[in-house]
Amino acid sequence: MISLNERVQGKDLQRFLNSRGVGDACPTCQDGKLSIAVFDPEGEQEGNALAIRVVHLLDDGSRRGYGEFMRVCANCGHIHYIRDAEVLAFMEEESDNG
Q1: How many domains does the chain have?
Q2: Range of the domain at 54
Q3: pLDDT class for 69, splitting at 50, 70, 90?
Q4: What is the pTM of this model?
């Protein structure tokens, strides 16, 4: 199984979303476009930048059990989360198929 140590890039997440028919129009404002949150402080890596993974800590210090990648609308701030388990399974399937 692919682990998060393999580092999910923005282009990997976009490929997953495209394969599922998920568009980038904002469902809240209908005017903005959802963009994948990546770590690229210099703005030079484009699709190769690492996708930001959010892990929610509970009050007792434990974790929810999974993380999420996110997309954000620059117009209204709507946030769309994508559970990491599905993305990793997709990447594993891709690697199995060549």
Answers
A1: 1
A2: 4-96
A3: very high
A4: 0.81
